[in-house]
Amino acid sequence: MNEKNVPVGVSARHIHLTEEHIAILFGSGYELNVLKPLSQPGQFAAEETVAVIGPKGRFDKVRILGPARKASQLEISKTDSFQLGVRPPVRESGSIDNTPGITIQGPAGEVVLERGVIVAARHIHFHTKEAAEWGIEDKQLLRVRVQGERPLVFEDVIARVSDQFALDMHIDTDEANAAGVASGDTAVILDK
Protein backbone atom coordinates (compact mmCIF):
# COMPACT_ATOMS: atom_id res chain seq x y z
CA MET A 1 0.00 0.00 0.00
CA ASN A 2 1.31 3.42 -0.89
CA GLU A 3 1.79 5.81 1.99
CA LYS A 4 -1.52 7.47 2.85
CA ASN A 5 -1.61 10.67 4.89
CA VAL A 6 -4.46 11.36 7.30
CA PRO A 7 -5.13 14.56 9.27
CA VAL A 8 -5.12 14.15 13.05
CA GLY A 9 -7.88 15.48 15.30
CA VAL A 10 -7.30 15.49 19.05
CA SER A 11 -10.46 15.01 21.10
CA ALA A 12 -10.50 16.58 24.55
CA ARG A 13 -13.14 15.44 27.04
CA HIS A 14 -16.62 16.11 25.73
CA ILE A 15 -20.20 14.97 26.05
CA HIS A 16 -22.98 13.97 23.67
CA LEU A 17 -26.54 14.45 24.95
CA THR A 18 -30.02 13.29 23.99
CA GLU A 19 -32.76 15.85 23.31
CA GLU A 20 -34.42 14.75 26.56
CA HIS A 21 -31.27 15.41 28.58
CA ILE A 22 -30.69 18.77 26.87
CA ALA A 23 -34.21 19.77 27.94
CA ILE A 24 -33.57 18.71 31.56
CA LEU A 25 -30.19 20.44 31.74
CA PHE A 26 -31.07 23.67 29.89
CA GLY A 27 -34.86 23.90 29.87
CA SER A 28 -37.75 22.61 27.78
CA GLY A 29 -37.38 23.27 24.06
CA TYR A 30 -33.76 24.41 24.39
CA GLU A 31 -31.61 24.13 21.27
CA LEU A 32 -27.81 24.01 21.31
CA ASN A 33 -25.92 26.93 19.77
CA VAL A 34 -23.08 26.23 17.35
CA LEU A 35 -19.68 27.43 18.58
CA LYS A 36 -17.75 25.90 15.67
CA PRO A 37 -18.16 23.10 13.15
CA LEU A 38 -16.14 19.90 13.62
CA SER A 39 -14.29 17.81 11.02
CA GLN A 40 -17.25 15.49 10.50
CA PRO A 41 -20.07 16.92 8.36
CA GLY A 42 -23.01 18.18 10.43
CA GLN A 43 -21.17 17.80 13.75
CA PHE A 44 -20.37 20.82 15.91
CA ALA A 45 -18.97 21.99 19.22
CA ALA A 46 -21.76 23.77 21.06
CA GLU A 47 -21.39 27.02 22.97
CA GLU A 48 -22.96 25.25 25.94
CA THR A 49 -21.04 23.32 28.58
CA VAL A 50 -22.05 21.22 31.58
CA ALA A 51 -20.43 19.97 34.77
CA VAL A 52 -19.79 16.23 35.16
CA ILE A 53 -19.46 14.76 38.64
CA GLY A 54 -17.99 11.41 39.57
CA PRO A 55 -17.39 9.65 42.88
CA LYS A 56 -14.03 11.42 43.47
CA GLY A 57 -14.14 14.65 41.51
CA ARG A 58 -15.71 16.82 38.87
CA PHE A 59 -15.02 18.73 35.69
CA ASP A 60 -16.78 22.00 35.02
CA LYS A 61 -17.28 23.38 31.54
CA VAL A 62 -17.30 20.10 29.63
CA ARG A 63 -18.10 20.96 26.02
CA ILE A 64 -21.25 19.53 24.47
CA LEU A 65 -20.95 18.22 20.91
CA GLY A 66 -24.01 18.33 18.72
CA PRO A 67 -26.37 17.52 17.28
CA ALA A 68 -28.35 15.52 19.87
CA ARG A 69 -27.75 11.77 19.94
CA LYS A 70 -29.86 8.70 20.68
CA ALA A 71 -27.93 8.10 23.93
CA SER A 72 -25.98 10.45 26.16
CA GLN A 73 -22.28 9.65 26.38
CA LEU A 74 -19.27 11.22 28.11
CA GLU A 75 -15.91 10.69 26.38
CA ILE A 76 -12.87 11.20 28.59
CA SER A 77 -9.21 10.22 28.67
CA LYS A 78 -7.78 7.62 31.01
CA THR A 79 -6.13 10.47 32.96
CA ASP A 80 -9.54 12.16 33.35
CA SER A 81 -11.00 8.94 34.74
CA PHE A 82 -8.69 9.03 37.77
CA GLN A 83 -9.84 12.51 38.78
CA LEU A 84 -13.52 11.57 38.38
CA GLY A 85 -13.10 8.22 40.13
CA VAL A 86 -14.63 6.10 37.36
CA ARG A 87 -13.19 3.19 35.38
CA PRO A 88 -14.49 3.48 31.84
CA PRO A 89 -13.57 0.91 29.20
CA VAL A 90 -12.02 1.78 25.85
CA ARG A 91 -14.92 1.64 23.42
CA GLU A 92 -16.16 2.82 20.07
CA SER A 93 -18.52 5.75 20.29
CA GLY A 94 -22.06 4.58 20.96
CA SER A 95 -21.01 1.31 22.60
CA ILE A 96 -22.05 2.10 26.17
CA ASP A 97 -23.34 -1.22 27.57
CA ASN A 98 -21.60 -2.14 30.82
CA THR A 99 -19.98 1.27 31.26
CA PRO A 100 -19.99 3.46 34.37
CA GLY A 101 -22.39 6.35 34.84
CA ILE A 102 -21.90 9.97 35.82
CA THR A 103 -23.90 12.92 37.11
CA ILE A 104 -24.36 15.84 34.71
CA GLN A 105 -25.28 19.33 35.93
CA GLY A 106 -26.63 22.09 33.73
CA PRO A 107 -28.08 25.52 34.52
CA ALA A 108 -31.66 24.21 34.67
CA GLY A 109 -31.28 20.72 36.12
CA GLU A 110 -29.32 17.55 36.70
CA VAL A 111 -29.19 14.15 34.99
CA VAL A 112 -27.81 10.98 36.55
CA LEU A 113 -26.59 8.61 33.85
CA GLU A 114 -26.49 4.97 34.87
CA ARG A 115 -24.09 4.26 32.00
CA GLY A 116 -22.34 6.13 29.24
CA VAL A 117 -18.75 7.00 30.27
CA ILE A 118 -16.10 5.72 27.86
CA VAL A 119 -12.52 6.27 26.77
CA ALA A 120 -12.99 6.53 23.01
CA ALA A 121 -11.11 3.97 20.95
CA ARG A 122 -8.71 5.61 18.50
CA HIS A 123 -10.16 5.57 15.02
CA ILE A 124 -10.06 7.05 11.54
CA HIS A 125 -13.15 8.30 9.76
CA PHE A 126 -13.08 7.45 6.04
CA HIS A 127 -15.54 8.51 3.39
CA THR A 128 -16.65 5.40 1.46
CA LYS A 129 -14.88 6.69 -1.67
CA GLU A 130 -11.50 7.05 0.10
CA ALA A 131 -11.90 3.69 1.81
CA ALA A 132 -12.57 1.98 -1.53
CA GLU A 133 -9.60 3.72 -3.18
CA TRP A 134 -7.32 2.73 -0.32
CA GLY A 135 -8.68 -0.81 0.05
CA ILE A 136 -9.91 -0.24 3.60
CA GLU A 137 -13.05 -1.81 5.08
CA ASP A 138 -15.27 -0.66 7.92
CA LYS A 139 -14.05 -1.90 11.33
CA GLN A 140 -10.67 -2.90 9.92
CA LEU A 141 -7.78 -2.47 12.37
CA LEU A 142 -4.88 -0.36 11.12
CA ARG A 143 -1.33 0.55 12.15
CA VAL A 144 -0.75 4.28 12.00
CA ARG A 145 2.37 6.41 12.57
CA VAL A 146 2.00 9.93 13.93
CA GLN A 147 4.84 12.38 13.32
CA GLY A 148 4.94 14.54 16.42
CA GLU A 149 7.76 15.56 18.72
CA ARG A 150 7.89 11.92 19.80
CA PRO A 151 6.87 9.84 16.75
CA LEU A 152 4.70 6.93 17.70
CA VAL A 153 3.01 3.98 15.98
CA PHE A 154 -0.55 3.30 17.10
CA GLU A 155 -1.85 -0.26 16.73
CA ASP A 156 -5.51 -1.27 16.44
CA VAL A 157 -6.77 2.00 14.98
CA ILE A 158 -10.35 1.28 13.95
CA ALA A 159 -11.43 2.22 10.43
CA ARG A 160 -14.91 3.75 10.43
CA VAL A 161 -16.32 3.99 6.92
CA SER A 162 -19.43 5.92 5.86
CA ASP A 163 -20.60 8.19 3.08
CA GLN A 164 -21.33 10.67 5.91
CA PHE A 165 -17.69 10.89 7.06
CA ALA A 166 -14.72 13.09 6.18
CA LEU A 167 -11.15 11.80 6.47
CA ASP A 168 -9.84 12.40 10.01
CA MET A 169 -8.01 10.37 12.68
CA HIS A 170 -9.35 10.85 16.20
CA ILE A 171 -7.17 10.29 19.26
CA ASP A 172 -7.61 11.53 22.82
CA THR A 173 -5.43 13.95 24.73
CA ASP A 174 -3.43 11.20 26.45
CA GLU A 175 -2.52 9.67 23.09
CA ALA A 176 -1.74 13.07 21.56
CA ASN A 177 0.47 14.05 24.50
CA ALA A 178 2.35 10.74 24.33
CA ALA A 179 3.28 11.45 20.72
CA GLY A 180 3.58 15.22 20.96
CA VAL A 181 0.96 15.81 18.26
CA ALA A 182 -1.83 18.36 17.91
CA SER A 183 -4.94 18.72 15.80
CA GLY A 184 -3.95 19.42 12.22
CA ASP A 185 -0.81 17.29 12.32
CA THR A 186 -0.50 14.34 9.96
CA ALA A 187 -0.59 10.58 10.47
CA VAL A 188 0.44 7.89 8.00
CA ILE A 189 -1.28 4.53 7.59
CA LEU A 190 1.52 1.94 7.65
CA ASP A 191 -0.35 -1.17 6.59
CA LYS A 192 -3.77 -2.71 6.45
TrEMBL record:
Superkingdom of this protein's organism: Bacteria
EC number: 2.3.1.222
Name of a matching Pfam family: PTAC
Swiss-Prot/TrEMBL keywords: Acyltransferase, Metal-binding, Transferase, Zinc
The keyword Transport is annotated on this UniProt entry: no
An MF annotation (GO) of this entry: metal ion binding
Transcription in keyword set: no
Enzyme class, spelled out: transferase
GO terms for biological process, alphabetical: 1,2-propanediol catabolic process
Catalytic activity: propanoyl-CoA + phosphate = propanoyl phosphate + CoA
Pathway per the UniProt entry: Polyol metabolism; 1,2-propanediol degradation
Required cofactor(s): Zn(2+)
Annotated transmembrane regions: none
Primary role: Involved in 1,2-propanediol (1,2-PD) degradation by catalyzing the conversion of propanoyl-CoA to propanoyl-phosphate.
Similarity annotation: Belongs to the PduL family.
Identification of the protein by name: Phosphate propanoyltransferase
Originating organism: Paenibacillus hemerocallicola
